[in-house]
Design goal:
Distance between the termini: 46 Å
Largest sheet: 8 strands, mixed
Structural class: alpha/beta
Bound molecules: phosphoenolpyruvate, magnesium ion
Number of strands: 17
Shape: globular
Strand order of the largest sheet: 1-8-7-3-4-5-6-2
Radius of gyration: 25 Å
Oligomer: single chain
Mean pLDDT: 92
CATH architecture of the largest domain: Alpha-Beta Barrel
Number of domains: 3
């Protein structure tokens, strides 16, 4: 018998786990129509309204089904689609198009495409996700208008690996979880809603695989690794055995991690640490709790500003921060003030184009010069502090003046709120992100001003090594294991300890098993990681005693190259 040729593909692992099964292509029929001019615009508007109502009804049904399998927070991702359709601006723009004589299909397409173009232009993952949502809504509305049926994924056979150009949250809602061994897509990233859903539903997924649809045939045997992003079509026997063994190991590992659920985070010799989470929107506070996080060490507030066409008001921001605080039920919530610029653009702010945006007029620098914008955010955070254990954190601090000016503004806002009789936490701590080489060098002075530090290794690595975090050509330089970066981290923690302020870490390195003994030895007190990593990190911390961590650290800090450090840690840990 002729065997098929093995094909190796690579994408982004977006939901962990090993998937082994047979490929099932989802062919989407395009929602095609012939544009026509309408004269009875009233009847056409009514047709649009009926389609919109049917879409919302259908989506709510899907959301309820999803709620039963994946939980309310995930179902709310789908309910967002209803909010988009009911958006007064989208409705009035569609009406305008129809009033000009376009048919409802063309009107929907034109208006949605305008939003999609706007969101895609931002070029960041979160806003790109927003444009994916509008694409999903557009297809749904067109299908309603054209009377097309939904793609049904209920009856796929067992051990199916779904393969589709773009996986939408509405498709995810229709899955028969028991039969799905994995998901492969051509578009999408870790921040995609479908990626988040796959993770919660425990379905391994690899997304963003170039030319996937050109390589994939239904019925082909497939292996996928949702951690590394590797995919093998028509694998040989040896590859199948390797993946089966890895799946078994992972299953065991996950079972072992579960033993740490509900337990405090303690080293082998009894030191207790705070193990909190990084989140990007208020709903993720629930994800932090579900994953047994002890609070939130970094709430990136950029999303509030990015998924919009104008600045969010104090009230809108207050509600978002309050929601996160309430979901955490008294557990700490560190809210980072707006960290725009660098790789995070906000189109409507009209930021000037800069030759070197990572070193430009960004984050705290921008906020201190746009005091109204900053004041609005600080007031909103202060108001939310009446509903939980809220802390304020300033990003990209490079000098003492920035901390003093930021704190002075906090005090001004506090006195305004006092006069207005609005409640807030009088003792709210104000800390800073230590994420620049400058902050590392003057950490002792900064520690006199700040109530806490949180080390942002994602930027600290870049600014210490003069290596762009997104540039593959300098990936060897952009490494937290570079001796200069390790010294920087050590110096920051030491300065914090000398001034008796807590020092946490919210960069990706906080969850790196190779770095954890060093962080224990340096004296870090708080680890802030992405929610799914909580149990893994708690388990790693539990392995180490201080003397063992000190021994590893002494050796590492005596090695002058990244290569030697990496080799030593890989062989020792
Ligand atoms: C960091 O720089 O490490 C950090 C946590 O902030 P961000 O990744 O949002 O820049
Ligand atoms: Mg940063």
């Amino acid at each position: 018998m002729k065997t098929k040729k093995t094909i190796l593909l690579k994408g982004t692992g977006t939901a962990p786990g090993i998937g082994i099964g047979d490929l099932w292509r989802i062919e989407e029929c395009p929602a095609a129509y012939t544009p026509r001019q309408v004269t009875d615009t009233r009847a056409e508007k009514q047709r649009f309204q009926q389609a919109a109502a049917a879409f919302c009804e259908n989506t709510e049904r899907q959301a309820q089904a999803l709620q039963a399998t994946a939980g309310k927070e995930q179902a709310d991702i789908l309910r967002e689609h209803i909010t988009i359709v009911q958006d007064p601006f989208l409705q009035s723009e569609t009406d305008k198009q129809i009033a000009s004589g376009q048919c409802a299909e063309a009107a929907v397409e034109a208006v949605c495409d305008r939003f999609i173009a706007l969101f895609s232009a931002a070029g960041d993952e979160l806003t790109e996700q927003r444009s994916a949502d509008v694409r999903d809504v557009k297809t749904g509305l067109l299908r309603q208008l054209l009377g097309m049926s939904e793609v049904s994924l209920k009856n796929v056979p067992e051990n199916t690996v779904l393969c589709v150009k773009e996986m939408t949250p509405s498709m995810m809602a229709g899955l028969n979880r028991e039969h799905i061994a994995g998901i492969l897509t051509e578009t999408g990233s870790k921040a995609s809603h479908s990626a988040i859903l796959a993770k919660v539903m425990g379905i391994p997924a690899v997304m963003g695989i170039p030319d996937l649809m050109a390589s994939a045939c239904s019925g082909t045997a497939v292996l996928l690794d949702g951690d590394t992003g590797e995919v093998i079509l028509s694998p040989d026997e040896e590859q199948q055995q390797q993946y089966r063994a890895r799946r078994e190991t992972l299953r065991r590992e996950y079972a072992e991690r579960e033993l740490f659920r509900g337990k405090p985070t303690v080293s082998a010799d009894g030191t207790v640490y705070e193990l909190v989470c990084n989140i990007g929107n208020p709903q993720e506070a629930a994800l932090a709790i579900e994953n047994d996080g002890e609070g939130v060490g970094l709430f990136r507030t950029e999303f509030l500003f990015m998924n919009q066409t104008s600045l969010p008001t104090e009230e809108e921001q207050f509600r978002a921060y309050q929601k996160a605080a309430l979901l955490l039920h008294g557990k700490p919530l560190v809210i980072r003030t707006l960290d725009i610029g660098g790789d995070k653009d906000i189109p409507y702010l009209g930021l000037a184009k800069e030759d070197n945006p990572f070193m430009g007029f960004r984050a705290i620098r921008y906020c201190l010069h746009h005091r109204d914008l900053f004041r609005t955010q600080i007031r909103a955070i202060l108001r939310a502090s009446a509903f939980g254990k809220v802390r304020i954190m300033f990003p990209l601090i490079t000098c003492v003046e920035e901390v003093r000016q930021g704190k002075a503004l906090v005090e001004e806002c506090q006195s305004e709120l006092r006069t207005q009789g609005i409640a807030f936490d009088e003792a709210i701590p104000v800390g800073i992100m230590a994420e620049t080489a400058a902050a590392g060098m003057i950490a002792d002075w900064l520690a006199e001003e700040a109530d806490f530090f949180s080390i942002g290794t994602n930027d600290l690595t870049g600014y210490t090594m003069a290596a762009d975090r997104g540039n593959r050509n300098v990936a060897d330089w952009y490494s937290v294991l570079q001796p200069s970066v390790l010294r920087m981290i050590q110096a920051i923690i030491r300065a914090g300890k000398n001034h008796h302020i807590p020092v946490g870490m919210c960069g990706e390195a906080a969850g790196d098993p190779m770095l954890i003994p060093l962080l224990i030895s340096f004296g870090l007190t708080e680890f802030s990681v992405s929610p799914p990593d909580v149990l893994r990190v708690r388990k790693t911390i539990a392995r180490w005693t201080k003397p063992q961590a000190d021994e590893v650290t002494a050796k590492v800090m005596s090695l002058p190259t990244q290569q030697e450090i990496k080799e030593y840690l890989q062989n020792t840990i």
